[in-house]
Amino acid sequence: METRTVGMDNSAVANRPITRPAVKLFFGLLLLSSGFVAACGRGNIESDVRPTQEPRRVSQRADAGFMMYGTTRLVQDLIDLGYRAEEVAAADGQRFAVIAPFTVPGGRFDGRTIDLGLQGTPDFPMTVASAIHVRANPQLYDYGDTLKDVRNIIVSPLGPEWRYWSHNFQWQGERNARRLLSQINGIFFNAS
Q1: What is the pTM (predicted TM-score) of this model?
Q2: 18 and 27 in contact (C-beta within 8 Å)?
């Protein structure tokens, strides 16, 4: 069995052709170790050790959509969908995303322009509040329009001109403002 010693002339081994996988392995290890040494030498643990690519960075800005939750996220998502939305605080401190104006897309109230309030939850989009808040003149539904097991219209914390429409949203699977608005549109389409 022949062994090859670095620095010695060993013609039997030296004349053996070098295979492509061996070359790739050698240069891959060389590049990896030099990139690792370079990264460690700079003391920069965020650097990518592959020298042919730029370091990967994730934005931590609040407006980038990463790590942003709650009413602020809901408002931004609604704006991104093309709605005019703003964050509003009720007198009791509850936070809402208010879309004004909102045009009812179908059903009994098709084409009516209203203001639509969505109570913000601290962890939106993980959870949503179980109601919509409607301001319209004249009201779409008023307190006397409550029907047991069909709809519950009560006082809204947004003020006397608003109505709270109780509704439990199906919030499994995809969780985002687009899906929430789709379910809200379903409320209006199914209004009787």
Answers
A1: 0.66
A2: no
